[in-house]
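Notebook entry, structure prediction.
Reason for the run: the old model in the group folder had no record of what sequence produced it. Starting over properly, with the input documented here first.
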Amino acid sequence: MGLRFAHVAVLAALWLAGAAGAALSQTAPPAPPANTGPAPPTPYVMGMGDLMNTLIQPRHAKLGIAGRAENWAVANYALSELRQVFERIGKAVPKFRGMPVPDLIDAALTAPLGAVEAAIREKDPQKFAAAYDRVTQGCNACHIELDHPYVVIKTPDASVFPNQEFKPQH
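New structure, fully documented this time:
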């Protein structure tokens, strides 16, 4: 009987090992599907230079050109657009090089932009020119503060927008 018991025990052990192997092979996770397509594109995030060049600089130029042309309606519109985009940039990029962007904008531009607004309201070209120069100086002061003294903004001496009329339309 001892031999028969040993034989049954060996057969049982073999059967259990086979059953366990079969069970394991059935519960293994499926292989991941092969990558058949291109990776999704990485969204482009504009840097501060991109934002300044594409959003701020054109509005700064349009404001100056409109004021020089004494087109107060366009100047007022350009001023509004400039303020709005500075606000949006301050929200989108709250810090740049460790500095608080909204605070920099406020310190450099709130008073000069207010002076531009007053000059536009008074339709005074001399006051506008002086206030606009202060805006431009504010831009350059901010560039210096952010270690970009080589980015020097100036009053436009010609229109870079040949497809827009800046003379007042009466």
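Summary: The chain has five helices and two strands.
The old model has been moved to the deprecated folder.
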